Automatic annotation (TrEMBL):
Originating organism: Micromonospora rosaria
Keyword hit for NADP: yes
Protein name in UniProt: L-lysine N6-monooxygenase MbtG
Keyword NADP: yes
TM annotation in the entry: none
Protein family membership: Belongs to the lysine N(6)-hydroxylase/L-ornithine N(5)-oxygenase family.
């Protein structure tokens, strides 16, 4: 077991923390930049790893990359990435603002590799975080525990690992090999043997469910897929240009200042612009699949609408789903070999953040306008939460749209906070030889 000290520890090397890393790498003072570390539990930097399907496109303009809306001249832009890998002409000729998802994932890895002062480490999983306090209770920083036993101490913390996948309680008793959430689809489906005609249930009525429904027909040739949803059917995203103005970074100020009832109305009305719809191209593709299936007389594809899954049990290697028809009230059983969940993410704060809040004695998790966790008492350290603040910062908070602007807001807040509290100790450089890990946060000297 070893221990290290850094100035800023960012948990998760996804778009949120990468945008912050780019802002720090470009503009932060030397000690902060050299003392910033991103840790990623996977073995590489990516984006929507489980849904990197070959033909899947982003629904967000390439101009909403890690940096362009903050610094259009930055070398970390998506355009510069295309130029550096020799594909700028091809992308321009494509005539689209929407890159392929795989392309964006490659861009994020390129950006991480291009950092000159900030460090990124992969295959480093943080299992827990605890506050560091002085004897009189002042929070001076944080101690992160990693899966390999190492601990990392920091004064500033940025949590950007996204929300926890939502697995409805009714599916909780199924064996892992019978159930795949969309966040794991690509690697998990590749491990499923293709030696029999699987009966597959796809649960959900939005983009991720639709993409899995289309993809599984190729990934498991000869399968019989059934799509199950609570809604009346599949719909397009609400994507008018007027609606999209609510995704502008400048709209965050208006949303944050709005009264709670107005925020609730805004989130409800914008639900179909992100969560409850499909991209027009995917909707057309699915309809054509159903049309051709009927035209050929196969009747292999099935869609069940207005249905709740009220039971899911294993029976002899099969999954027996109990479906309740919301119109008639009747129930039916559906036997399948595999369940794919396009059920999105838990709306609550991530489990790690909730646990940290309990350790801090917080009644609720709240952040300031600039994403800093609100603490009950005095603190010389700070924690920033990214991508989990829809309730206070709007529906764009978990999306790419505000990355560049948010990274600058967090950096400026961190610099202002740092200037208000003079550090009492010099932080060791990242390449300092590891020292034995302390037994607990109380035994770690303060870096505030």
């Amino acid at each position: 077991m070893t221990h290290r000290e850094v100035h800023l520890l960012a948990i998760g090397a996804g778009p949120s923390n990468l945008a912050l890393a780019v802002a720090i790498d470009e503009t932060a003072p030397e000690d902060l930049a050299r003392g910033t570390l991103l840790v990623e539990r996977d073995d590489s930097v990516s984006w929507q790893r489980g849904m990197l399907l070959p033909e899947a496109q982003s629904q967000v303009s390439f101009l909403k990359d890690l940096v362009t809306l903050r610094n259009p001249k930055s070398r970390f832009s998506f355009i510069n990435y295309l130029h550096s890998v020799g594909r700028l002409d091809d992308f321009i000729n494509l005539g689209s603002f929407l890159p392929y998802r795989v392309e964006l994932a490659n861009y994020l890895q390129w950006a991480a590799d291009s950092l000159s002062r900030v460090r990124v480490e992969t295959s480093r999983e943080v299992t827990s975080i605890e506050p560091r306090r002085t004897a009189d209770g002042v929070v001076t920083g944080w101690l992160a525990h990693l899966a390999d036993g190492e601990t990392i101490g920091c004064r500033y913390l940025s949590v950007g690992m996204g929300r926890d996948p939502h697995v409805p309680e009714v599916f909780g008793g199924l064996r892992r090999d019978l159930l795949i959430h969309s966040t794991e689809y690509v690697p998990r489906i590749a491990a499923v043997p293709q030696d029999r005609p699987y009966r597959v249930a796809v649960v959900g009525g939005a983009q991720s469910a639709a993409e899995m429904f289309a993809a599984v027909q190729q990934d498991l040739p000869g399968c019989t897929p059934t799509m199950i949803m609570r809604s009346i059917g599949l719909n397009n995203y609400e994507s008018s240009k007027f609606t999209n103005e609510l995704y502008f970074p400048s709209f965050v100020d208006q949303f944050h200042a709005a009264r709670p009832p107005a925020r609730t109305q805004l989130l409800a009305e914008m639900h179909r612009s992100n969560y409850a719809g499909l991209a027009p191209g995917m909707l057309d593709t699915l309809y054509r699949q159903f049309y051709l299936d009927r035209l050929g007389g196969h009747r292999r594809l099935r869609m069940i609408t207005m249905a709740d899954v009220t039971g899911a049990v294993e029976d002899g290697g099969e999954v027996v789903l109990t479906l309740n028809d919301r119109m008639s009230g009747r129930t039916e059983e559906l036997r399948v070999d595999l369940v794919l969940l396009g059920t999105g993410f838990v709306s609550a704060m991530p489990r790690m953040v909730r646990t940290l809040g309990d350790t801090l004695g917080l009644d609720s998790i709240q952040v300031t306008r600039h994403y800093r966790l609100v603490l009950d008492g005095p603190a010389t350290g700070a924690c920033y939460l990214q991508g989990v603040n829809e309730a206070t910062h709007g529906i764009a908070d978990s999306l790419l749209s505000v990355l560049a602007a948010r990274s600058d807001e967090i950096l400026q807040d961190l610099l202002a906070h740092r200037a208000d509290v003079t550090p009492a100790a010099v932080i060791p450089a990242l390449d300092t030889a590891p020292v034995p890990a302390p037994r607990s946060a109380e035994s770690v000297p303060s870096i505030a």
